[in-house]
Amino acid sequence: MDTPISRAQTPNNASDDAAQRDTPDPPRRVVDDPIQTDATSYVVQPSPDDIEAITTRFRRLTGLRLCSWQAFVTAVCNTGKKDLFVLAPPGAGKTLAFLAPLIFNPHHIVVIICPLIALGSQHFKSCVALGISAIELTAKTATNANYKDIARCLFRVIIAPPEVANRDPRFVKLFKVNAFALRFYRVIADEVHCVEEWSDFRPQYLNFDLLLHWLPPRARFLCASATVTDALRARIMKTFRLQPKTTELIRLNNDCPNIFFAVRKMSGTPTNYNDLLSLLPSDPDLIAYDCPPPPKFMVFMPSKKECVEARLFLMHHLPLHSVGRICWFFSDCSEGYKNKMLQDLKDGKIWGMFCTDSAGMGIDVPDVRIVIQWGIKNVTFATLYQRIGRGGRDRSLQALALVYVENAHWPDDGKGKAPLKTSVKREAPDDEIPSKRVKIEEKEVR
């Protein structure tokens, strides 16, 4: 019978690869306060020459050029001796950063824990573009035959939601297969802020004990997000049993200088969508079939009900040949529909969409010019920033982030109205998103 190996133990019969390293893996344990201890290197930090060498070689192998921070991530991953925590703004290239090491290590296998199927599909396409074999485990693809192929190391990237990684016994049994365990080297937790943000309705995000129990001791973590505070980072490190002395923090400036912000008061109730007519051309009834499209937009609504209502409202103001230019996008939609709508949005076949958090992370449409948050009730700063990050991903384009605030939360005169700041949860004053340039535009958005 196989004996489980805890990540907190270093077995005597470790693999030859682990035994031959100059520096043994330090034991992992839960630390009381990972933020209070400065991270120190177990290995020499990559030099500028190392970064340049990695950038040059990667460009020769793929035709793509790494940013300096992406090359730094690659260099640290190549050592295999440190965990990483990467905090970078939306659209900065986090996906390329954690896939690039696989180009230099053709025998390594990684698991990407991904919260959304649409985001997982995007990671799968990125792997295919780089020539990396990958599989996305969904309800359709998590078959016994595919698990056997994974155990035979036919895939180098396994993309899975937390429910599969933590609950499917076939998944954890992969680490009992020697061939797979010897080649496995890293867990990538993408959009890692969901560990806490979504744990109330996806409890498997807080229960990684089974996965951690079976991981090979030399396996490392890479946590990536755009919205993690220091306090949240400490809790995530405890969840994954990461030690500060072996965790490299890479933090980029989260400012998006091409995105301008505006805050407006709703002209009516949250179910009155007249404010959204500004998304359409001046005379929508006179729109020609081949007219130039308005700026591409994404409107984030509180629920799928509002998505449907808002889309139907705008459809009534469009000629018949244009009603299909606007769509809704939420979790209940089929994966085929969501993939088609995202592709149509990229191709310009549709003008925009009304969506929920299903489109709030990792969706890479480079030319979205307008992002609207409809209402701020129960919206955290992390959620708001992730949604705003869907706009202006092409940094050469200017984009507008527009927040419509309910009358109940608009601080007009202070008489019985809640101030704006109380409607958005925050942990501490230092949790605020870095300041951005503000542009208050009184005219309609075109």
From TrEMBL:
Pfam entry (one): DEAD
EC number annotated for this UniProt entry: 5.6.2.4
Catalysed reactions, semicolon-separated: Couples ATP hydrolysis with the unwinding of duplex DNA by translocating in the 3'-5' direction
Official protein name in the record: DNA 3'-5' helicase
Domain of life: Eukaryota
Keywords, ordered alphabetically: ATP-binding, Hydrolase, Nucleotide-binding
GO MF annotation terms: 3'-5' DNA helicase activity; ATP binding; four-way junction helicase activity; hydrolase activity; nucleic acid binding
Hydrolase recorded as keyword: yes
InterPro entries xref list: DEAD/DEAH_box_helicase_dom (IPR011545), Helicase_ATP-bd (IPR014001), Helicase_C-like (IPR001650), P-loop_NTPase (IPR027417)
Amino acid composition bias (Basic and acidic residues), ranges on this chain: 18-32, 424-446
Species the sequence originates in: Exidia glandulosa HHB12029
PANTHER family in the record: DNA HELICASE RECQ FAMILY MEMBER, RECQ HELICASE, PUTATIVE (AFU_ORTHOLOGUE AFUA_6G14720)-RELATED
Family the entry assigns: Belongs to the helicase family. RecQ subfamily.
Cellular component terms per the entry's GO annotation: chromosome; cytoplasm
Compositionally biased residues, Polar residues: 1-15
Residue ranges of domain Helicase ATP-binding in the record: 75-246
UniProt feature coiled coil, ranges: none
GO terms classed as biological process: double-strand break repair via homologous recombination
